[in-house]
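Quick sanity check, NAD(P)-dependent oxidoreductase:
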Amino acid sequence: MKLGIIGSGKIVHDFLTTAAKIKNLELAAISTTKRSRHIAEDLAKQYGIKEVFADNNQLCNDDNVDTVYVAVPNFLHYDVVKTALLAGKNVICEKPYVETVAQAQELKKIADDHNVIIVEAITNIHLPNYKEIKRKLTKIAPIHIISLNYTQYSSRYDDFLQGKIAPVFDPAKDGGTLMDLNIYNIHLAVGLFGKPEKVQYYPVIQQHIDTSGILNLVYPDKQAVLIASKDSYTTPRSFIEGEKGTIYFDGSTGVIKNFTIERRNGENSEFNFNQFDHRMASEFTDFVKIIDNHDTVEADKLYDHSVAVMAVLAQAKESVK
C-alpha cells in the first residue's frame, strides 16, 4: 500500500508513531492546509513521508499514491472521501464514516464503479482481543446485560468551558461525545450483538453539544447501556453479563488492552491476544491486506457493519429531537 494522508491533526500524529510497524505500508504523501503546511513538513521529515502537499486534489492525483487516509474533522469526511474515490484511490476514512447512511451508500457506489475499496478506520473491531471476546461469548451465554463505558476527560474541555470551541465540541461540525467516543461503544455492541430493535440517547447538553451521554440499545433478550463522557474523569470498566459469567475489561473501549472472564463457579481467567501495543496497528494491518489483495468480500463486510453503526447513530440523534 502506498498511502497518502490527508490531515495533520492529533490522530495523524498518533498513527505515524506506529506506521513503521505495519508491513507493506509505504508513506507516500501527506496533504494539509496551507496554514498547517509546516506541520506536514515536520511530520514528513520525522517519519520519512516522501511528498508534502497543501492541496488535497494534488495528493489525490499523485500516481505514487494508491490509498488515501482521510483524517480531517468529521464534517469534511464526505467531500474529501468523494474527491479521493473519483480520482481512483482506495480510501481509509477515519471514524465516524460520514453524516448519513445515504452519503455512505453514494460513496460505496462510487468506489464500486471505480473498482476501488473504501473502509472506515475504527480501532476496536480489528483488535484480536475483540475477536476473541466474540468467540468466547458462548462461555457466559445467555447474555442479558451489557455496559460499555468510554469516559475520557477531554484535553479540549477546559477551553470549551471558556468558549473556545474545537471541532469535536462544535455541533455544526458533527462534533459531540456521541460521535467522538460513544461510537466506539456502538461499534462493539453492533459487532458483538448485531443491530438493536430500539435506540434511545440521553445526552448531557452544554452549549448546544453533548459533552457526555448514555445510549440505550434494546435487544429482544438483552439490554445494552453505552456510556461516554468527555466532561468527567474515571477509569472506565465495561461488562458483558451472562447467566454463566461475565466478561469485563478496564479502560478505553477503543483499545481493549486485555479482558477477564469471571465464571459463576468462581473461576477467573485473564486474556490478552493483541499483537501490537498501539491500538491503530491492527486496523491498518488489516487494511493493507484488504487493499493490496483487493479483498472486496472483506471490505463489503466492513461496509455493512459501518452502515449498521451509522443507522444506530441516526436513531440516537433522532431520539432526542
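Posting the structure with no commentary besides this: The mean pLDDT is 96.
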